[in-house]
Amino acid sequence: MSAKTLVTGGVRSGKSFHAESLVVAEPQVTYVVPGPEVDPSVDPAHAARVAAHRARRPASWVTLEEHDLAAALSTAEGALVVDCVSDWVRWLIGELDGWDEAREDWQPRFTEYVEAAAAALAARRGTVVLVSLEAGMGGDVLDLGAQMFRELLGYTNQRLALECDDVLLIVAGRALTL
């Protein structure tokens, strides 16, 4: 496996399982969770998926819940699995009041966060596997918030992919090298 890999695909395609399989032989693994905490009362299905992910990981893996993706990429120890970039993008939009404010007021800061993460990824030595939803694989989205999320996720995925040695698209649990 290359040192830096972006694993992308649709919802429930097997991205996380495949990403985890890429680092299973590593002596030390940190599982970075950069997105929002999941409230089981608000989204029980998502909370169940998070619990299933945790249950299948080896007990020796360290879980790091860190919203500052650049900091996690710079300081976390061992091989890294970042799951998931799309959750981080959703959290970052919320953190910058992007769901409520004019995009031109906060998007430059969003870009700064993505650039900082890309720079940290470029500087990182060792194995890093990023997991993210693939943006725009569906039809037209009429909801403006969903359109904005998809555009920003697409930008983020493309920017981080530039710093990766490999990009894998997961379809029905099978990996396609791009």
Automatic annotation (TrEMBL):
It comes from the Bacteria. It catalyses: adenosylcob(III)inamide phosphate + GTP + H(+) = adenosylcob(III)inamide-GDP + diphosphate; adenosylcob(III)inamide + ATP = adenosylcob(III)inamide phosphate + ADP + H(+); adenosylcob(III)inamide + GTP = adenosylcob(III)inamide phosphate + GDP + H(+). Keywords: ATP-binding, Cobalamin biosynthesis, GTP-binding, Kinase, Nucleotide-binding, Transferase. Pathway: Cofactor biosynthesis; adenosylcobalamin biosynthesis; adenosylcobalamin from cob(II)yrinate a,c-diamide: step 6/7; Cofactor biosynthesis; adenosylcobalamin biosynthesis; adenosylcobalamin from cob(II)yrinate a,c-diamide: step 5/7. One of its GO terms (biological process) is cobalamin biosynthetic process. Coiled coil: none annotated. The active site is at H53 (gmp-histidine intermediate). One of its GO terms (molecular function) is ATP binding. Its EC number is 2.7.1.156, 2.7.7.62. GTP binds at G9, G10, V11, R12, S13, G14, K15, S16, R54, A55, R56, R57, E65, D83. This is Adenosylcobinamide kinase. It comes from Aeromicrobium camelliae. The lineage of its organism: Bacteria, Bacillati, Actinomycetota, Actinomycetes, Propionibacteriales.
